[in-house]
Amino acid sequence: MQKKSRNIFLIIGLISLILLAILIIYFFNNDFVALQKNPFKSSKLNILLVGYDSSINGPPRADTIILASIDLKTKEIGLLSIPRDTRISIPEHGMNRINASHAFGGVELTASTLEDYLDVPIEYYVETNFRGFAGIIDAIGGVDINIKEPLQYVDNAGGLYIDLPSGNQHLDGEESLQYVRYRGAIKGDIGRVERQQKFMKAMMKRIMNPDIVIKLPSIYSETQKAINTNIPVQDITPFVRLIKDINLNMIETVMLPGEPKYIHGASYWIADDKELKIVVNNLIRSKEYIRNGQYKLAILNGNGIAGQASGISDDMEKYGFQVISIANADNFSYEDTLVIYYHKDMRKIADNINDVIGGKSEFVKLDKSELEKLKEDIQIIIGSDNLIE
Fold this sequence. Notes:
Layout: H1 2-27, H2 33-36, E1 44-52, E2 62-71, E3 77-81, E4 87-90, E5 94-97, H3 100-118, E6 124-129, H4 130-139, E7 143-147, E8 151-155, E9 160-164, E10 167-171, H5 173-181, H6 188-207, H7 216-226, E11 227-229, H8 236-245, E12 251-255, E13 258-263, E14 266-271, H9 273-283, H10 287-292, E15 296-301, H11 308-318, E16 322-328, E17 338-341, H12 347-357, E18 360-363, H13 368-373, E19 378-382
Parallel strand pairs: 1-6, 3-12, 15-16, 15-19, 17-18
Antiparallel strand pairs: 1-2, 2-3, 4-5, 6-11, 7-10, 8-9, 13-14, 17-19
Helix pairs in contact: 4-5, 4-7, 5-6
């Protein structure tokens, strides 16, 4: 009997140790899961924030689209607002407004569309509908904001009624929803984007208020019901620590640069590509991304399946590399993907590329004259082990 009791205590002890290990992994995790998988050790965490409208009239379109980029070293936050009418190429759907991507394929398609368009990785997404947004604001006790001029609008068909006075206001969930949805006659959607950026700052200020701590249970409960996200539970601790260190003066809000235009009778927001590149470099891309930009890649299809080189090229460009050529290899019989480098000090970068695409590093020694003829720093030959759908 005594032996059986000892066995039971041993089993309980082992179970307790396992549970303790799980708690340590989940709640004392210092690093974000998505960045642990990034071989280039990025200092930036990019999160797509999407608010969508009602699905009464079909699949919901994105109404609010913001890409938040957090520098984990400096604690700076860049908020890039993308007008919902931005004209963009949606994979397998052609040119359309960016908000249509949500109707076609949900937040996942919106994220992948923006990854391709902005040429940056998006680690996480968070989306909510109008009702969920209002519930979250009520859970944190409302938001204080200064309204410059009265906001009044009625849309009986859409069920939208806005009536907000000017001045310093404390907005509850429903009133906050009115504020971020209002589209004035003068600036229209662009004015709304500006108000959304202003509201984001006010909401973050509210979240950082000490009295929020006692509201955490209701906030967590409401958030669980209101949002759809791919952020894992392991990241709770890193996010809590991050929020504690945020300085509201270190938040920069920018709207995707461009201008409104009519194309074939439809209104769009057309980006200024030159200005957009500057904004993305300064606001979103990390130092690691810029450092990768010094390397030139040649990508060769060594498995004979069309589109393989282009797929790998897209992945590499998102990490900042210069892809200077895409072509077929000398044959289509390569079984293993090879990452060939010609300078021994590039071994680390070649291994990092392998971590992304799954290949083998191979050093090829060339004489000085051969090196001078080379245009690329690294050559990638795609084998049959690396099939891109």
